[in-house]
Amino acid sequence: MRIAVVGVGLIGGSVGLAARERLDAEVVGFDPSPAALETALEVGAVDRVTPTAEAALDGAEVAFVAAPVGVLPDAVRTALAAAGDDCVVTDVGSTKRTVGDAIRDERFIGGHPLAGAASAGVENARAALFDGATWYLTPIATTRGTLYERLHRLLLALGARPRAIDAQTHDRLLATVSHLPHVLANVLVAQAARARTEAGRDEAVEPLPATGPSFRDITRVAGSNTAIWRDIYLANADALIGSIDDALDRLTAFRAALADADGEGIAAWNDAARDDRRRLLEGDLAGGEVSELRVSVPNRPGVVAEIALALGRAGINIVDMALHPAPDRSSGSIVLWIAGAEPAAQAEALVAGLGLPVSRA
Fold first, then answer.
1. Domain residue extents for the chain
2. Which of 66, 132, 238, 270 is 20 to 30 A from 29 in CA distance terms?
3. What are the two backbone dihedrals, phi and then psi, of residue 218, each rounded to the nearest 5 degrees?
4. Which superfamily does CATH assign the domain made up of 290-360 to?
């Protein structure tokens, strides 16, 4: 298998390392930075590099576009223009609506791995970066099913847990769990710096209190790469504004409880946060037996994406999948392997609700 990586930074480089190590794939890389290309060769993230993105796509079966969000639509268009008819093109951007609205090609599937590291750059890439990480995929109605299957299987081989989600839900969710935390981290460090200045201390030498590890933890992402995060904030502005407004409402409610010395209300507020966190952590755990579902499907565009999105919205983990077209290509079957007995039963009901015949093997 030949894989093209357009943009060999931390994510693109890690894709290359994992693909070479776990799939024995040939990885061809392009990056506008000659230094990044040189480093990618040195660390073994790519087999060879090319002077253009178009050259990297020559003969590729899968292409990963790892460009900044602000230039992502143009980068994906360039990749698709150079890609073969049977090449699946995906991206790794942190927002999905901007590129999804701009690109309507059956070969393109938006993607976003929830993985990263404190330090950027291909020199920090590692093959294990995606192990156990959720990798969101945003197929559309015209997505070609065979290409979705190929990408899904490849991501599993890289160690990730692919999950289908629609672009709007993705951006709304990430505004809350990723983009808002970065905003709050910036606010907190600015607030702390001002508090130290107002106290008359020399902020250049005054260390953070040794008793404040929670502050260090919650502000770890403050001041992250400006070029990257400026584009993310702007690309997801409406969803992020909604998350900020919700956070302000919650802070205002807690402020009122403090002003009223409402001890019971404060205790209930804190207990609710603990319970919410426990449920969020439990929801991220997957395990148990794996069930096999067989779905009979007509040969029509979008049926694979329809099933994947229905299960993704329900938080059901597809451990693996396979497509088996009928000899006359008029219909076929999709085999799904689902983790856990209860999720498998839920998946069976959801697929049946789509009007598709389904049985459990």
1. 2-165, 170-283, 290-360
2. 132
3. -75, -20
4. ACT domain (3.30.70.260)
DSSP classification of residue 175: I
Tokens of 273: 């946060």
Question: Global pTM?
Answer: 0.82
List Cα–Cα distances, 188 to 119, 198, 215, 271, 277, in angstroms: 21, 15, 8, 23, 21
User: How many Cβ atoms are within 10 Å of 73's Cβ, its own excluded?
Assistant: 19
Q: For position 220, what pLDDT does the model report?
A: 83
Q: What is the CATH number of domain 170-283?
A: 1.10.3660.10
Burial of 96 (0-12, 13-18, 19+ CB in 10 A): buried
CA separation for the pair 163, 147 (Å, rounded): 15
Question: pLDDT of 282-328, one tens digit each?
Answer: 555 445 578 889 999 888 888 898 999 999 888 888 888 888 887 77
SS3 118: coil
Q: What integer is the mean pLDDT of 128-146?
A: 92
